[in-house]
From TrEMBL:
Organism: Paralabilibaculum antarcticum
Keyword Phosphoprotein: yes
Domain Response regulatory stretches: 6-125
SMART domains: AAA (SM00382), REC (SM00448)
Gene3D superfamilies cross-referenced by the UniProt entry: 1.10.8.60, 3.40.50.2300, Homeodomain-like (1.10.10.60), P-loop containing nucleotide triphosphate hydrolases (3.40.50.300)
Domain Sigma-54 factor interaction positions: 155-384
Name by which UniProt lists this protein: Sigma-54 dependent transcriptional regulator
Keyword Transcription regulation: yes
Modification type 4-aspartylphosphate: residues: 55
Alphabetical UniProt keywords: ATP-binding, DNA-binding, Nucleotide-binding, Phosphoprotein, Transcription, Transcription regulation
Length: 456
């Protein structure tokens, strides 16, 4: 049983210290004790501990518990992930509640209940491990976000529509208000969500993105709220959910319109109470997240159709940001073309490549049903296929130029036909992934897997 963690016991009762150390010695890799709490801070400088067992009263005749609360707060100032268990000879429920609110992980009385003492301490060791895992994951996520944000050069454009979008972003970013971002597929909703995070007071914390449309119902709770070992067949260890991982930062929930109705209540409860309960767990975990969601669905119509909870919608849409489609901001196309040309010309070593006026005119007149994502693909394809250093209108393959449908219907290649049918279903349903999946006879998670596979 050794190797379970490091324990520091702070109590002015020498006999209790000796008894606890003797009893717990085989259950911990290291146990230190101190009688005088004034030595606590110097002890913290010398050694890191996983669990602290702290007396609540040190002065004779004083039973308020304030001393214990004071020293607990000093420990938490030193290590915010510390697990402190307060111990007292006086069973005071109100004091226990106060201690838990201020940061204690548990509260036990000085009655010699070996099983209670041991189970409480070992649970605290597990909690400490979980806290450190969350801390490590957050640090990794921060590094990933830093690299992503460093490589993102957002093209704001000069159109009035996008100017209005960024006016709203500037106003809402510094608040903690929930934000609903709406817009067609490919308009850059996640980029706007990241911009909100980068301008917020949480910019130095994590930005966690979740594609809700790709989550099956069976994975929904464990992905968002985490799960305990044994909660389901494959749960071989505790798993941290996205809400807990994002705590302190921002949580971006993409494709919010694709959540089944029966799961919307669980999401609403988590957002409303700022608490989650991992799948298979009993104790709630407090989370502090800024919620930003996005969808290409008309949530108000879905509410009218009984497909989306009205209370969840009004919890999410404190501020609504409507991202315009590319056809409604065509004046931004030249700037976007320059941006993507620079990106892919460097990638494919075609730095000398340029687009002539005829190519720009053709792109400016096209409706871009796939929005910025489609424009980016067209630019990349043009850079790869260009025979000369000057790309003209005939070299830009968009719309009917691709003749995709004619080629595919004549082909017996399964992949080509599957890609064509997926594109057709999405176009037919106006980008509603739930309906598109239904038309295709597959579930949403399978559809999202195929979208990634075919880079759609």
């Amino acid at each position: 049983m050794a190797g379970k963690g490091r324990l520091l016991i702070i109590d002015d009762n020498a006999e209790l210290l000796f008894a606890l150390q003797l009893f717990l010695n085989t259950h911990f890799e290291k146990i230190d004790t101190i009688k005088n709490p004034n030595l606590l801070l110097s002890k913290l400088e010398e050694q890191e501990y996983d669990v602290y067992l702290l007396d609540m009263n040190f002065k004779a005749g004083v039973n308020s518990g304030n001393e214990g609360l004071y020293w607990m707060n000093r420990i938490l100032e030193f290590d915010s992930n510390a697990c402190v268990i307060l111990i007292t000879a006086y069973g005071d429920v109100e004091l226990a509640v106060k201690a838990m609110k201020e940061g204690a992980v548990d509260f036990i009385q000085k009655s010699w209940d070996e099983s209670k003492i041991l189970s409480t301490l070992l649970s605290a060791v597990k909690l400490r491990k979980s806290k450190l895992e969350v801390k490590g994951l957050k640090e990794k996520q921060k590094q990933i976000n830093h690299q992503i944000n460093k490589n993102i050069n957002f093209v704001k454009g000069e159109s009035e529509a996008m100017t209005q979008v960024f006016r709203t972003v500037d106003k809402v970013a510094k608040t903690d208000a929930n934000v609903l971002i709406i817009g067609e597929n490919g308009t850059g909703k996640e980029l706007i969500a990241r911009e909100i995070h980068l301008q917020s007071t949480r910019k130095d914390e994590v930005f966690v993105s979740v594609d809700l449309g790709s989550l099956s119902e069976s994975l929904f709770e464990s992905e968002l709220f985490g799960s305990k070992k044994g909660a389901f067949t494959d749960a071989k260890e505790d798993r941290i959910g996205r809400f807990e991982l994002a705590s302190g930062g921002s949580l971006f929930l993409d494709e919010i319109g694709n959540i089944p109705l029966n799961l919307q209540a669980k999401l609403l409860t988590a957002i409303q109470n700022k608490q989650i309960i991992p799948l298979g767990g009993n104790s709630p975990i407090n989370v502090d997240v800024r919620i930003v969601v996005a969808t290409n669905s008309n949530l108000f119509q879905m509410v009218a159709d009984g497909l989306f909870r009205e209370d969840l919608l009004y919890r999410l849409n404190t501020i609504v940001i409507d991202i315009p489609s590319l056809k409604d901001r065509s004046e931004d196309i030249p700037e976007l073309v320059d941006f993507f040309l620079n990106k892919y010309a460097k990638l494919y070593k075609r730095e000398e490549l340029t687009f002539d006026k005829s190519a720009l005119k053709k792109m400016g007149q096209y409706s871009w049903p796939g929005n910025i994502r489609e424009l980016e693909h067209v630019i990349e394809k043009s850079v790869i296929l260009a025979d000369t250093n000057k790309v003209g209108a005939t070299d830009v393959l968009i719309g009917d130029d691709n003749q995709i449908s004619k080629k595919i219907v004549e082909s017996l290649n399964l992949n080509e036909n599957e890609k064509f049918l997926i594109e057709k279903a999405i176009k037919h349903t106006g980008g509603n992934m739930s309906l598109a999946a239904k038309e295709l006879g597959i579930n949403r998670s399978t559809l999202y897997d195929k979208l990634k596979r075919y880079d759609l």
